[in-house]
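User: I'm putting together notes for a lab meeting next week and I want to include a structural view of one of the chains we've been expressing. I don't have a solved structure, so I'd like a prediction I can at least talk through. The sequence is below, exactly as it appears in our construct file.
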Amino acid sequence: MDRALAANDLQTVRVEREFSAGRVAQGALIAAGTAACLNLIVYFVARTAGVTFTGRFNPSSPETVVALTDVLGASIVWVVPAAAGLLVLNYFMERPSKVFVRVATAFGLLSIAGPFTFPEASLGTRLALTAMHLILTAAIVGAIGVRAKSPTCRTSGP
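Assistant: Thanks for the context. Below is the predicted structure for the 158-residue chain, given as structure tokens.
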């Protein structure tokens, strides 16, 4: 039987993804705002407690001051690659939330090593920066990894 292929013979299978780009963008904005606000609170509390936020990022470089704008920038800028990474995972995987949460948490925990490698930084500076890294990690995992899920694709836990 020869018969021409009709458009109805080919059905497009639409796979419902766990995340939509719009919800990921909303989650990214929430994560950036949350991290920025909480990290500013840590910054001001630490400054009030006498933390100087100075140190050397490299033993051969001059002493650097971590300014308020540095805290804001770091609180916001790392949300972008996290959201982009989730969208890439979402494109290639049907349920990327578990992978995203694990990878984002691992990156966040590894980033804690950064503040502790600053030569000549005070313990207060190191602890405050570590707290800020943990806050950013929690904001990214919470707002992007959990909150941004499409309502129709809720699964039990991340």
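A couple of points you could mention at the meeting. The chain is about 60% helix and 5% strand. The longest strand covers residues 54-55.

User: Perfect, that's what I needed.
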